[in-house]
Specification:
Layout lengths: L2 H5 L2 E2 L5 E5 L13 H16 L3 E8 L8 E11 L3 E10 L2 E11 L39 E4 L15 E7 L8 H7 L3 H8 L4 E5 L1 E6 L8 E11 L2 E10 L4 E13 L26
Antiparallel strand pairs: 1-2, 2-4, 3-6, 3-10, 4-5, 5-6, 7-8, 8-11, 9-13, 10-13, 11-12, 12-13
Helix pairs in contact: 2-3
Length: about 290
């Protein structure tokens, strides 16, 4: 199954318009479309319209699309050059704009492809403990993604990589073909990192989601290397590197989020990150 089928994205008679029925399987436990699902669908739509793979895409989340609605995605190829396309996609439910995505697509040849850096030193997924869910909902997007805390060698608890950083193995059992759209879904887990730095006492809602695709390497598991850079003025900021099981860099994401405390009577979490930690606003959240 490819990401288009996994998301349930449907083409229309117009090659520039696509339809995304918002099912429970691409939504949060609050019955609203998961942010990464929207970005992934927009990427798949732009790839389908342009015939080119995504290089980068950035989404601005404007409103929530509830389960049972249909998001219409309109694609505009602003510049369609010989090798590169600059495009945008706007997703809306009726007259309400839900998501706006700008992107570049294309493929070029260069004789010295190189990536830098390395994933954290962690145990194999099968040796790592399962990530338990906050939500009790059994048929949301979360139920279609298996995750395991990736512990650094010798560590006793997740989060011992460094303050503000966690690593989580993730796989989508139904998905057989990696793509920018599938990495968009996996790249929408910075809010989980923010919640973790707050010891689970805060949830967050994504304002944006930017994805840069390096290479769509097939892998049973992908390592989500999440770094929360800051929480300030009620907003959280972080980045995510997606690595294959063999340590190949596949994609890089970044997000800013609204952060809300889960403690009664509090409206913002502490500004200082928890240094050594041992998702879910009232409206739908990304985790």
């Amino acid at each position: 199954m490819d990401a288009t089928s996994w998301l349930g994205l449907e083409p229309s008679h117009n090659p520039h318009r696509w339809h995304l029925p918002v099912s429970r399987g691409i939504s949060t436990g609050h019955r609203a479309m998961f942010g990464g699902s929207g970005l992934g669908a927009a990427i798949a739509a732009m790839e389908g319209t342009s015939g080119r793979p995504v290089v980068w895409a950035t989404a601005q989340y404007l409103s929530f699309a509830k389960v049972g609605t249909i998001v219409d995605i309109d694609v505009t190829l602003a510049v369609h050059g010989q090798k590169t396309t600059q495009a945008r996609a706007v997703g809306h439910v009726g007259g309400t704009e839900i998501i706006t995505v700008n992107a570049a697509l294309g493929s070029r040849t260069f004789p010295r492809d190189t990536t830098y850096g390395a994933p954290p030193d962690v145990e194999h997924p099968e040796e790592c403990p399962k990530r338990e869910r906050f939500s009790k909902v059994a048929d949301s997007l979360d139920s279609r993604i298996e995750q395991r805390w990736a512990l650094p060698l010798g560590a006793k608890s997740p989060g011992e990589l460094e303050p503000g950083r966690i690593a989580v193995w993730s796989r989508m059992p139904e998905l057989l073909e990696p793509s920018g759209a599938s990495f968009a879904v996996l790249g929408d887990y910075v809010p989980m990192g923010i919640s973790f730095t707050q010891d689970g006492q805060a949830g967050s809602t994504s304002l944006d989601n930017t994805l840069r695709v390096i290479q769509a390497v097939p892998s049973e598991w992908y390592l989500l290397d999440i770094r929360v850079d800051a929480i300030s003025n009620g907003f959280g900021h972080g980045v995510i590197h997606i690595w294959s099981l063999e340590g190949e860099l596949c994609a890089i994401g970044s997000q800013s989020c609204i952060v809300r405390s889960r403690e009664p009577g509090e409206h913002t979490p502490p500004k200082r990150l928890v240094e050594a930690p041992d998702q879910s606003p009232p409206a739908p959240e990304t985790q």
